[in-house]
Write the structure tokens for this entry.
Amino acid sequence: MNEEKLQAEKQQNRESVPRTSYTGSADTYVEDQPGHHDTYGEPGANQVNVESAKGQYRDLKRELTTASRRSTRRRPSVKLEEGEEEAQPEEFNLDEFMHGVTEETEASGIITKRLGVVWKDLVVKGWGADAHKIPTNSNQLIKVFTPWKFFNIGTKGSKRTILRSLTGFCRDGEMLLVLGRPGSGCTSFLKIIANVRQQYTDVEGDVSYGGIDPSFFAKHYRGQAVYNEEEDQHYPTLTTKQTLQFALRCKTPGKRLPDESKKVFVKNVIYLLGNMLGLTKQMNTMVGNAFVRGLSGGERKRLSIAEVMTTLSTITCWDCSTRGLDAASALDYVRSLRIMTDLFKKTTIASLYQASNSIFTLFDKVLVLDDGYCIYFGPVEKAKEYFEDLGFYCPPRKSIPDFLTGLCNPMEREFKPGYEDKTPQHASEFEEAYKSSQVFQDMTKQLHAYENEIERTKPAELFAKAIREEHQKRAPKKFPYTASFYQQVKALTVRQYHLLLKDRQALISRYGTILIQGLITASCFFKLPLTGLGAFSRGGAIFFSLLFNAFISQSELSNFMTGRPILEKHKHFAMYRPSAFYLAQVIMDVPYAIVQVLLYAFCAYFMMGLNLDAGRFFTFFIILFFVNMMMNGLFRLFGACTSNFYTATQISGILLIALVTYTGYVIPYKTMHPWLYWIYWMNPLGYGYQALIKNEMAGQRYSCEGPGNAVPYGPGYDDWQYKVCTMKGGNPGEDFVLGDAYLLEEFSYKTSYRWAPDFVVVVAYFLLFTFLTASAMEYLHPSGTGSLTKLYLPGKAPKPKTNEDEEERIKRQHQVTEEMKAEGSGTTFSWHHMNYTVPFKGGPLQLLNDISGIVKPGHLTALMGSSGAGKTTLLDVLAKRKTIGKIDGRVYLNGEALMSDFERITGYCEQMDVHQPAVTVREAMRFSAYLRQDKDVPKAEKDDYVERILTLLEMEDIGDAQIGDVDKGAGISVEERKRLTIGLELVSKPKLLFLDEPTSGLDAQSSYNIVRFVRKLADAGWPVLCTIHQPSAILFEHFDHLLLLVRGGKTAYHGPIGKNSKTMIDYFESRGGPTCPDDANPAEYILEVVGAGTASGRGPKRDWAEIWAESDEAMALEEELEEIHQNADQHPTRKSVRYATSFWTQFWLVHKRMALAYWRSPNYNLGRFFTVMCISLLNGFTYWKMSYTSSDMQNRVFVLLATFIMAQTLIILAQPKFMTERLYFQRDYASRYYGWLPFGLTSVLVEVPYCIFFSAFFMFGFYWTAGLVNSSDQCGYFFIMVVFFVFWAVTLGFLIAAISTSHTMASVINPLFISMLILFAGLMQTPQAMPHFWSSWMYWLDPFHYYIEGLTVNEMEKLPVQCKPFDFAIFDPPPGETCGSYMENYLSSPASTGYIANPEATSQCQYCKYTSGKQYYTQTFQWDASHRYRNLGIIICYFALNVLVFQALVYLTRKPRR
């Protein structure tokens, strides 16, 4: 019975879905073979066949169903890959998991989810263009003092209507296509249907999900309506299988077969998805992205579909997901959607650019939007007829989607004769026409019928019940998550393990850094003596161990911020709770932190000579381990609460300084001021430090023998009855000090508190930060909404356009296009026998194989071929962009060998749109024109030309909009960036133009405009070579020549295309190719011909590269190129200039742009300013009005330690800034805008005013509040020293960034650099206590040493020391002597220091260790006031050295590896 039902269902699907016989024009001349329609030369394409996949699905289902009836007692172990079947006691239906709706599931009593969506009078509004201005340092500073403006309170700004009164519906099991030009509201519509509403100011009207309102749906059913964006967001280092396994583990339903494990279930579904979507062979391939090799674009798209299928979402919205795919992959993708919709009765809504007819017919309904108006909503089969009835004309070779979107552009419309004035002109008129049409009336009736059906059947109740059933056993029913919290954490931990294990480079650099740092630190504090002086060093060694582990944790920030977009996507899919994600990270931190701390402890503990006791070693280890885990949590908390890396680093930098200062080591508790000592009691690092030092010193005896350890000391002072240890905690008459007494008197630490509260508090803080970070990730949405906000210059935002304005703009654009003068200079470009090989694991790999060709004035040559044929590679080689591999061949420009000006006089539009985000579109185009057009052209003429190109590319409205950054949600759209890339090359008036896929990612009209404009350029005399993926017949007509490549980088054809492609088609037909029908797209035809043999093994296998090599056309080309070679000037003598402008012009323009970019980077600059000010004020008030006691002498040195950590923050913040600027420089340099030196110098010079400003404010907040010497000489020296020190820190940051290839690498190198600089400065370990190896060279090499010495001697040279009672060492003189007479010999010795406060007393002598500040630094550090200006000079030299090395590194990295 079940078998018959399946057969009937199969038959019914075939009959009811006519659109599944998807064949394109190519199928009329090639014999049918399932799974290989429309491959067009793509061997990996058309892996998805709808009927085949449905059949496979049903076969598998039947197989499982049959298997389930066998009641054998075999152990459950499904291995479907091997074809084994499993015995199941009762029926298992895969449809239940995929929520496909069939009679079978209803009969078996399983409730399945199905929901349609209805929208009525939907109006969506957002902020108008004038509501957002480009952020600058000044306007953001004003915002700080008007904080309500951050929440849009009191801000002026108009609202714009995005969607205007839309009404419609989409049933379950239906597919709706949304068409419209960019900016017409397609994305907004999809987001509203998917219930993503945060970015809009008003959403009016009703949206109903089967009778459920949006707010209830968002709360209880998030993840049932899913929005899938254009970009594929996946972890690049996971494999396809790992990605799907993870998604399935989070979404495995609770109701499964009895005795079936989750593991077996996941395996079955992955097998099904792999087969259905053609991903079986790719299961163990890394997913990859733009920087990591992995899946191809089409495969990544299919993975996105598979991932969305695993989410069990009922309604899916796909936004422009075919961007950058060729036609075959796009068709595969939409077929997959059709499968998903048909089998699982989903509601599918998609917007697509440049869709073909084959794709169009797969949909049920189409919604056409123009400026937010609905101009058509109805069945796909009636759309063309409807508009033709209105009087519009669709040319024979134009696809229907292109025809429909073309109606939105007045320049693209074509009319039937006599209808020119009768058709609608504007979007509002189109809407009126639609609302008075029969189609509208039919759709309204269907809508009412559907609403009545919803009212009658109440799908919402069944849906709610199905959702409850779907939840796993322990998953709370009130939340939208399928898996229980435990299962989520388990799945996430496995994924985290795979992610960490794959990142070998980060692991090696992290553990390498710790090993090196551990050894260096240990050798600096080598074998610490158990003496009074050794006790101070011991405190320093332990403090440093703590500090280094805290610094290492800061590198977690950049890792934590990188996975944010994927987390947001999964949050939207309701895959797991973000808190589970964080918990999994913490679980995976444990083994890594254990290895990290053990590595450091083994290096440091034994070499330093710390307390050799097993219990104490493991105590040291476990405390450091928890400190590390706790600090990871603290830094991640800021990552979770802030929206970007800069803010997180700045806040955590300020906090780190507060924690380090208030550990109790830098400034002892008893000298802290009451207004800030609460930090000490709240300080997690403080408790960690206390636990570590108590663990080390409790019960230890420190000897007071030896110089500097006791007073008085020397000949005649041998009796311990009359001397005392200089170390705090000593008792008169004892030649040792107990560690416990020292800690109590010096730091107010009680050793009995080591475990509780100290260790307990560290663990408690770790748990608290874990809880807070998990909560922040759960409830905060710091990463924004993923929508793009345009930012304009003040007063330059475009006003809403009237119909008259729009007509005027179109007229102007038409005029500019027609006025293209013959500006080309008649350039001929030829290449002959081009070969290109790259190094590869198994020996050199040849990517280009003997390719020859020529582009003449007026030629528009299309460069085409299947994926992997080498199109982009050839362009890169010809445009001289390759830096890796070996290139052979002859290239001539106008019969001359290429000269140094070649890159400048050619324009190359690359696929990747890399632009400086801070400038506006107009500023970017002027920058290109000023630097690349001849210097003799007047500025006014260059400006005028820029305006013409702006008009031509329809970019006048965004001329004053900031380019921005798509990832940060502000700036121009992806499609507008593509137009800008082309505009930047056009304004330079190149003699030769290379374009790499200029139409990918654009809608049909933008593509048409660009190709038509390029045709105009060619007609004006410019030679153009352009790669193009899958042009429509309309676009292909504009090209006059073709260079066709086949796999292996070989030529299959090079020559004229001919009228109606006749010449090209004749070439292939005459050599055994199939006949091309009149209505076929010639571009698709030729790819089908050359790829037919490799694609599917059907038809005659012909080597078209060999056929070409033997053809008459190839011989004629060879003769022509040989003649050019014979007559070519191999050593041309004409004047060739690498750059169009002089060095000073380049320098001025580059500096001007960089200064503007900095002015418009308030996140970076204001953030640094607030960081510096917080550090400054914190230190000023911590060391408020220091006195002249001996303990305050030490504080005067330690107050400068805070400036080290300020420097560290500046170093860390400078790096991402330079790394992003370097990307824009490399792009500009490749086109010879300007040289490397103007960029290198500008990078440093642009920082100068900011550094001076920061230094001045740092001094204002700190110098006088701390009570430092207030004389003009001292103040002036301090300021100049700090200015150059800040210069040095920022340029060191640039230096590390220039060496590093990634942020992660830089963040691991930083702690190593900073720690070593602090370690060898002479503060933590005085020069005389340092091992000779280090003190002989490293101490003298460390810039911190000169900085701290300069500032210390400047401050303390003339200060007296006036001890307070707690500073004195107290002892009794022998009977009959006064304190003064007893100490006379000791104080008269040149090596001794200090004074007796009560020389006449006969008991309780009060000895103060120093008499002056000079004595303090001379005795302790051996520093000298005469070095003051020498030290300043050395810091300036270090700054200059940084600048020189930085310039050298800029030169070395001026070209990216490609």
In short: The two ends are 62 Å apart (CA to CA).
